Amino acid sequence: MTVPKTFRRYTLDEFIAYLRTYIGRVKFPEVHVHGTWRPTIAMYRSKADPSFYIQAMYRTHTQVNGWSDIAQHATIDPDGYIWDGRPLTVAPASATGFNDSDYDGVHPFMFEMIGNFDVGCERLEGAQLRTAVGLTRALADMFGSRIVFHREMTSAKTCPGSGIDKAEFVAAVAAYRTEQTEVKTEVDVPMTAEEKKQFTALQATVEAQAKRIATLEGERKMAVPSWAKTAVDAAVCAKLIDTPDGRSEDFYSFVTIMHRKGLF
Ligand SMILES: [Zn+2]
């Protein structure tokens, strides 16, 4: 039986202040960036208790994986808060062969971001993105940590998610203004009943248009062209379409235009 553990939730500024107390006590040559994949942001939002999935990860890591503690030093939730994890003086369970687990006070800092950030699924944005970038920048500034994505340490994973571009993330960390805390961020607002109605209507429109275009085109079917891939992935993820392949060029143009207009 695992002894229950209490996890504390910090704002980015609070967590940076906490990290600062470790300067000289521990060295983080690298910061390892992960995305949970499961739980997804939607799963996280479905629970009233914000610590539900932090505890669930703790139980899985200790009881199923048999680790001494939760794998990561920190978890960034979809609201941009940081939950603490295993002690900062202990090496993480980040990636086999890359954890530097020899108790010499030198090891990577590991954080998880809750969400499925593969292409076409959920997006790292708003407060969560700001905290991920701000935390990474703080680690780089205080400990000289080099940014490493989980997928760079294994070919078996897309982690932190194929939708997160490493070069873009690194550029955002470099551009992050450490003195300015009130950066404008997009905030995700749940759909209202009226918006849900509009969304359902949109779904119907997409299918109706698809049928009409297919008829007009005499069923000239093709695979998803590369220029439409992002939009089509997003449409699949949003459950607007379930058979992305074998549609006409006009259908792919239509989906791309709708996606560019931010309709899904
Ligand atoms: Zn990972």
From TrEMBL:
InterPro entries linked: Amidase/PGRP_sf (IPR036505), Amidase_domain (IPR002502)
Gene3D superfamilies (alphabetical): Peptidoglycan recognition protein-like
A UniProt-annotated Pfam family: Amidase_2
Domain (N-acetylmuramoyl-L-alanine amidase) ranges: 47-161
Protein name: N-acetylmuramoyl-L-alanine amidase domain-containing protein
Species name: Paenibacillus glycanilyticus
